[in-house]
Amino acid sequence: MTTQNLATLETDVARMVQEVLAAAKLRPFDLFVLGCSTSEVVGGQIGQDSNPEVGARIIKTVLAQLRPHQLQLAVQGCEHINRSLVVERRVADEMGFEIVNVVPAMHAGGACSVAAFQQFKDPVEVEHVVAQAGLDIGDTAIGMHVKFVQVPVRPTQSELGGAHVTALRSRPKYVGGPRATYATV
């Protein structure tokens, strides 16, 4: 990717994250999950054309959007590491996530997982998280890591480079019956 394309990529990712944050109404210390295929972003097939520079830029941009809101990031790896996620050790400890022994690599985890492992202060891998919202770049299937009940968020821009983009937020379950009333969520 050219320098201009990378700058556009950062702008687009920042806007997508902001749109998800606006829809999700997260609170400080909530968890945001990112699934990303840099192969798809650069126009290739998922798992075939991982791009470390694109991964590094995406992680840097997502972190820059989340930090002012005190939100935590979990970055999902590929199926070769069972979609385990990079989180800060503090997050794993505070949220009771079980740490697993794997270090992401370019073709076993992916470029964004590798970048997160490099950019986080004290990274660890966990097998499963329960996030309040997330962004899926390249159809990486983040739904397993977003709290039930999941609600689709449709970013204004539905592609990043060559990758299809979707997002999820969560809301509390509606319980009760005909006599129940509900808060707007």
Automatic annotation (TrEMBL):
It comes from the Bacteria. Gene3D superfamilies: Hypothetical protein TT1679. InterPro entries: Antibiotic_NAT-like (IPR028345), DUF436 (IPR006340). Belongs to the UPF0340 family. This is UPF0340 protein LZY01_24060. It comes from Levilactobacillus zymae. The lineage of its organism: Bacteria, Bacillati, Bacillota, Bacilli, Lactobacillales.
